[in-house]
Amino acid sequence: MIRTDRSYYVLAIGLLGAIGVIDTAILNPTISAYAVTLGAGESVAGFIAGLYSIVAIPASLAMGLAIDAIGRRLALVVGLGLTAVWIFGYALAATPLHLMLLRIAHSLSGALVFPASIAMILDAARRKIGRSIGLYWLVVGTVIAIDNHRGRLEMARHNASLYEGHRKIRF
Predict the structure, then answer these.
(1) Segment (H or E) for 96
(2) Which of 26, 46, 64, 83 is the most buried (most CB within 10 A)?
(3) At what angle do helices 72-92 and 5-27 cross, to 10 degrees?
(4) What is the pLDDT of residues 106-161, one digit of tens each?
(5) What does the alpha-carbon distance between residue 23 and residue 19 come to, in Å, rounded to a whole number?
(6) pTM for the complete prediction?
(7) Are 36 and 165 in contact (CB under 8 A)?
């Protein structure tokens, strides 16, 4: 089968979507340990780890409306750019509250990335929507699986328990 320009476009958007999840996939296994090193108790650390999803899921609806208003490409660029800022901010967090606020901001920028990239895929797909979404999620899902495991391996490599690792693995 010969790939068309549309297939390459779908693959490129899939790679951008994957870039948007690399950070979350790597951080998820380690974020609660980091929160503990900042002074959070176990339950607060677990809440901070889950805060990304708690905010991103409902925010996706509002961000979907914003994406329609400002355009898919601009939303994708803004979402990826802000995600980079928030990831850098994790290294500067001094308290559990700082980390919570960063998780909220990070989830809002992530909520821009996914609906924008999927909308771009649907725009390009026309009649082969299932195939296009399948290709997109193949790329994104692979990154999620690999990087989630990679985050756990980093914790293990540094002999870090779930709640003590970030003193050794500083962002």
Answers:
(1) helix 96-125
(2) 83
(3) 20
(4) 999 988 988 888 888 777 766 666 766 676 667 766 666 676 666 666 666 655 55
(5) 8
(6) 0.72
(7) no
* Spatial separation of the C-alpha atoms in residues 151 and 157, rounded to whole Å: 10
Q: Which of 71, 40, 62, 35 is nearest to 165 (CA)?
A: 35
How many other C-beta atoms lie within 10 A of the C-beta of residue 57? 11
Q: Residue for token digits 């850098």? A: 88
Tokens standing for 67?
């994406």
CA distance 86 to 131: 33
| Dist CA 123 CA 119 (whole Å) | 6
Rounded to an integer, what distance in angstroms lies between the CA atom of residue 24 and that of residue 19?
A: 10
Query: Which amino acid is located at 145 in the chain?
Result: A
